[in-house]
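Provenance and format

Records in this collection were gathered into a single text stream. Each protein contributes a sequence line and a token line. The two records reproduced below are adjacent in the stream.
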Amino acid sequence: MVASTSDGPVLLIKKLGGLVTIIFGCLLTAVGATYESSSTMVVGLLLLVLGAALLTLKIIRRNQSSSLG
């Protein structure tokens, strides 16, 4: 089953943006936990949740546009 994308490079940029946001979120959360900085941990967790939400929305959008039957 091949999925066709009309977005092209935009789709790749959105996926990479989500992954980069998750990576920065994990790093900031780890740094905040190491140095016991609650504000850094909160920013890291927010970035982590934002990145996960972006990727989840991309997957949901991709699955809705394809026909299952």
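Adjacent record:
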Amino acid sequence: MGYLLLVLATIAWSFVGVLVKTASTMVDSSIITFSRFFFGVVFLGIFLLIKDGRVQLRSGLKWIWIGAVGKSVNYIFENIAITIGYSYGNILVQPIQTVTLLLASAYLFKEKVTLRGWFAASLCMIGVIVIGWNGVSLHTLMQGSGLTTLLFTLAGIGAAVHVLSQRSLARTMDSGNMNFSVFLWSTMLVSLPIPFQSQGFSGTVSVWAWAALILLGVITGLSFFWFAEAMRRVSFVVVAIVGNCSVLFSIVWSYLFYHEPITWYVLGGTLVFIAGFLIMNFPIRRRSVDKAAATATA
């Protein structure tokens, strides 16, 4: 069962870019962000009611709000970047998240980071730089692709803040109710600017776009639970390997569904930061930050 949950989470995360791109043909990024949280809360709430018979909403813990802000930042910038760029671009979020967590552990929590950890982080950043550059000229980079890399970088930092909040909240809350609380307050936060900046339904209304919005909600609501349950039942090495395969699937889906150009720079950069993930997570003795750094986000 653990392997099935791990595969479900991995495949679900790999489809995020394609689903956001599909939804963007009907609504703008603000509505996509709101829908990811809104439908996620709905599906997670239903699941918890069926599983436990109740839902516990918490608001009095500071890490709930820190997590809500971090996840909101993650989705806001990720959705904008995917809308204006390539659907596979969100593969940059994971290495940025990993490096941010490593820096937070070293400078905020004063945890010792090994030379292996810094080397792995360097590989992650090299991979991000290679993918962000993608062999284009400086002029082209400044005009467009550089902007999407910056947006994905901000999204990765937000994702790291969310992971840090999960690590803190996990001491007192189960993963289901923790994510329900964080996602509900995130829904409230991202809904605030919609009346002032959103264009709403900016494209053609279609069944596929609606399906994409709903599936994004399913992924937001349930994939974190699947992954948390998988980590309890499957060895961490397997989790690290299979979980990181989502970035490879993302590239495949972007080519199959949208025929987006996959250059050798993208493939090479991806392999470099995956190598960084594996180097960071394969040692027998792993620090807690290593586990957090390997946690992917949808």
